[in-house]
Amino acid sequence: MFNGASNFAKEVDFAFLFTLVVSIFFLVLITGLMIYFVVKYNRKRNPKATNVHSNVFLEVTWTVIPTILVLIMFWYGWVGYVDMSEAPKDTLNIDVTAQMWKWTFKYENGKTTDSLYVPVDKPVKLNLHSLDVNHAFYIPKFRIKKDVYPNQQRMIWFEAKELGSFDIACAEYCGLNHSYMYNKVKVMPQEEFSVWLNTTVPDSTTKNDSTNKSTGK
Q1: What is the pTM of this model?
Q2: Residue burial 18-34, b: 16+ Cβ < 10 Å; e: rest
Q3: N or C terminus of the chain with fewer C-beta within 10 Å?
Q4: How far is CA 198 from CA 138, 184, 201, in A?
């Protein structure tokens, strides 16, 4: 947490942190009250059970407060979902094909690779589709994940904020070699990416990645 590398990282991390803090608070509160009541109302101190009448204030309180907290969680989730669902107009479009058990990336000029290459600080739109079964495109460092279905065109976008190489995985079990369906996204400076995109030299890194996967290395 708090080590993301995309424009969505802060919002996603905050939503998870808020949910975690609320959950821990109520876990401690409820556990403490349970222990308190067990000690206070044990059989030795209360050999004869007594009827406890309702308390309207308490009932309203433990209904209203959780409702407000759930609505706050929903709001942060909804705002993040809307941001991820609306890509800017000036995006770099890349077609992503999922199949057992690899990802294929096709760029606007027709160049195709097994690894994803993107420029830093540039919105990137991924057009997702599957050739066979359900998959899930997941970049943990970017805090983005999208299910990919056969016969459906789906979209996800992001803007990388750090240079480097980050993991790509399939987050949904898709068959025998599901664990092999991982790769890398390489974030490059804009100038370096432009040179790479317009060169016709085969991508040796991509070939090595594919060879390693096929041999299990």
Answers
A1: 0.77
A2: ebeeeeeeeeeeeeeee
A3: C
A4: 27, 20, 9
Reported CATH class of domain 9-85: mainly alpha
Q: Where in the chain are all domains bearing CATH 1.10.287.90?
A: 9-85
- How many CB atoms neighbour CB 154 within 10 A? 15
Is the CATH number 2.40.50.140 carried by domain 92-215?
A: no
In SS3 terms, 130-167 reads as ECCCCEEEEEHHHCEEEEECECCCEEEEEEECCCEEEE
The pair of structure tokens assigned to 158 is 């992001």
